[in-house]
Amino acid sequence: MGRTFAEELEALVALGPEGLGVFAASLDATWIEEGLRATGKASVRRRKFPAEQAVWLVVGMGLFADRSIQAVVEHLGLVVPGTTSLAPSAIPKARYRVGPEPLRWLFEKVSAAWRDTPGAGGYKGLTLYAVDGVCVRVQDSDENFAYFGKPGGRNGQGDAGYPQLRAACLMNLDNRMLVDARMGPYATGEQTLARQLWPQVPAASLVILDRGYFEYALFAGLLDDGDDRHLLLRLRSNIKYEELESLPDGTLLVRIRPCSSALKASPGIRESITGRIVAYHHPGGKPGRLFTTLLDPALYPAEELVTLYHERWEIELGYDELKTHLLERKECLRSKKPEGVEQEFWGLLVAYNLIRREMLLAAQEHGLPPKRISFRGALLWLRNLWVVTAWLSSPGTLPRHLADFRASLDILVLPPRRSKRRYPRHVKIKMSKYKRNRGRRLQSQQTSGSER
After folding, report:
1. Rounded to the nearest 5°, which phi and psi values hold at 25?
2. Rg (the chain; Cα; Å)
3. Cα(291)–Cα(305) distance, rounded to whole angstroms?
């Protein structure tokens, strides 16, 4: 009977100072084995690059976007003991044998284990969450183009330079940990993806949304599927509602009802939703309105709700951390096939939560909120730990190095937020005046069309 992956991992670490040992210090290695078994992707026969190492590789790709995939394999010691050579073609083959399912399983396992931080943040007993969409460019291969599609551009539909993956994520705003995510082609609506996230929203929670998410069926799904779940979002100017009462704090008690198309699409949907409208006007900005299902004006004052709404920007900052820092401003993801893209994106989310967990532990050790720790600083520090320290130190010292990371916060602590700053939106960089490179695919289509 063969050894388990945990035993293989111990044997691998015992051979010398390998980068994989650092991963094992932060991410439970048995989760990898469980995920492969649960999704039916475990390696049946012994390979030079088995499924377990392929999963580690995908997580490593998210952490080391500035390195080639071959370099990630070499630096993290992901080849099984006794292997003297590994053909470069074996790496993508191993990735596609595994597929995206084990990485999704691992992300869900990680988020379930790390999503909550007891006693941290919240608002009057409610845990704060946000949902928002994000688009990520992918390689402009024929397969990615056919599956994901492209946004429109100056010359009409599908005119953008790259295909794009669309995703919607659920974030715990108290620790900025990603709780769940759904992805699909660019044409998939954010509301469609967001509706699939509601089962992960617990009771006693408040979900903050942007105004693009005002959809009656979306609200009904959130409110009906759990007790004491609430929402807060900005209203568009054309939203219709029925006024019920003017409340003492100047807010309005209102009722919204489903339109005919919502009733047709969702038979049996609840008849109405009661909420409050909070009007506000920041100096120098345009008047705005918020809609919330927090109905008690004494317990939930209007001024506090206006301030609380801006917590939604934490998920925007999280997407910036993913794109700007984890991906190192790369033009697009690496994979040229849709299943590889999905696998890579799940690995990226695992890597993000891994960084966030270490930041949270470091902040807790010093009595600071997680927002006061620099993501960029933590990412660079941990990259150095997982590469340099892993090659120069004994694996037995890894817990001490992680403890040193959590203790050495002088260069990682950010100054307190200047939360009262308000700036209007504006464009900093205009479109290029130079002629677009239309790409070989479009040029060949135009040529064949003219010949006909």
Report:
1. -70, -20
2. 24
3. 10
Question: Could you identify the residue written with the tokens 């001024």?
Answer: 303
Strands 164-172 and 177-185: antiparallel
Half-sphere exposure of 75 (CA within 13 A, CB side): 21
337 HSE (CA, 13 A, CB side): 10
Q: How confident is the model at residue 219 (pLDDT cuts 50, 70, 90)?
A: very high
Q: 251 to each of 65, 211, 279, 305, 345, how far by Cα in Å?
A: 48, 18, 7, 11, 42
Q: What is the mean pLDDT of the chain?
A: 82
CA angle 415, 316, 274 (to 5 degrees): 115
- Signed CA dihedral, 353, 149, 217, 320: sign only: positive
- What pTM value is reported for the model? 0.85
Q: Which CATH architecture has domain 106-317?
A: Alpha-Beta Complex (3.90)
- What's the half-sphere exposure (Cβ side, CA atoms, 13 Å) at 235? 20
CA–CA separation, 196 and 193 (whole Å): 6
DSSP-assigned letter for residue 182: E
- Residue 91 CA to its chain's centroid (Å): 25
Tokens of 86: 């590994």
Ranges in the chain annotated CATH 3.90.350.10: 106-317
Whether pLDDT at 207 is above 80:
yes
In what order do the strands lie in the sheet containing 273-280? Answer: 177-185, 164-172, 127-137, 205-209, 229-234, 288-292, 273-280, 252-256, 242-246
How many residues in total does the chain contain?
452
Q: How far apart are the first and last CA of the chain?
A: 64
Over the stretch 109-126, which tens digit does the pLDDT of each residue have? Answer: 999 988 887 656 789 999
Check pLDDT > 50 for residue 5.
no
